[in-house]
Every structure is written in C-alpha cells, then in structure tokens.
Amino acid sequence: MKLFLKGTRCDTPKCGIERRDTVPGMHTRRGKATDYGLHLREKQKVKHYYGVLERQFRRYFSEAQRSKGNTGATLMSLLERRLDNVVHRLGFGQSRAQARQLVAHGHITVNGRLVNVPSYLVRPGDVVRAKNRKKSLLAIQANLAENQRQLPDFLSLAEGPIPEGRVSRLPEDFDVSIPVQTQLIIELCSK
Known about the structure:
With 191 residues, this protein is an alpha+beta fold. It has helices spanning 16-19, 35-50, 54-66, 71-80, 83-90, 96-104, 134-146, 182-189, and strands at residues 108-110, 113-114, 127-130, 155-158, 164-167. The protein has 8 helices and 5 strands, in the order ααααααβββαββα. Helix 3 packs across helix 4, helix 4 (71-80) packs across helix 8 (182-189) and helix 5 crosses helix 6. The longest helix is centred in the first third of the chain and has 16 residues, at 35-50.
C-alpha cells in the first residue's frame, strides 16, 4: 500500500510500489498470513504513516484507552492532531518527514508562540502559522504552490503574506487520510 512516505514522489512513476509486483526482499516465499501478522501489519502501517516510534505509539494507545468513547477513533484522532501531521495536511510540507523538519527547525508557530516539538497536540481553535522569517516563508510558500491537496474538514487555510491554518474541531473517523482497521490495532495492543 502507498503510504506516501516520500511526499509527491509517490505520485510519479518512480514510486517503488509501482515498479514491482512482489513484496520487497530476496526470498519471497510467503504463506498465508496469520491473525497476528495481519494485526501487526496494520499497526506498523499506522506507525510508519505518522512517523511515530513504538514507545510513542504505546503512549498514544494508553491515552486513547483511558479516554471515554471508542478507543480506535480516539487513537486516530490523537495521531491526526500531531503538529507535524497538521503541518503536512495544511500543505506546508510535501511529506510528513519534511513537515516534522519544518517544525523541529523552528519554522512554525502555534497561536503566535514558537513550537519546535513535532508531537505537540493541537487543540480546536489553534492557529498554525509560518514564522515571519524570509527562509520560513519561502519554503512554505513553495510547498503550498507545488501541493494543491484537499484539506480535511477539521482544518482551514487562510492564504496571505503569511500562510496560516486554523484547527476548527477535533478530527473524527472520516478525517483520517489512510484506510485503517483500528479494531485490529486495538486487539493487538490490548494483549
């Protein structure tokens, strides 16, 4: 499955998943996938897509378990609320890795304050803006001009001299950009 880890390269013929018919690796003798294998693959897909490590994922899962409501929906909402993901979904970065780098290098402010932690969780009403610095503005405006992606409903983009986006509400199930079966992840992590 395409996880768009390389940004716009996944839209070109150079995408690795387009060039081969088999799974990567030299010895590709695969039998039927076990239940554990299916559960693990779903969890790994989400981890790689959002760029989180195992310990971070476990922390998000335990927070989702403690909250009221559907654990799977809460888990995906927490992952969608990460600042690096919001920066990517707004179009400020071509990929989540580039969005993470923009945040870590201090090119992004939240509510007028510099935030350089990619795992920062945004809240409804937060304003995510490019820092008013020539280098920051050039990088982000170039990405906005190159990427014309559709915004999810929980985000709004106000273009101007300084690009900014607003988080209008918490993300829900239909706002998640990757097809994922959260029940498989819940079953695996609850063991």
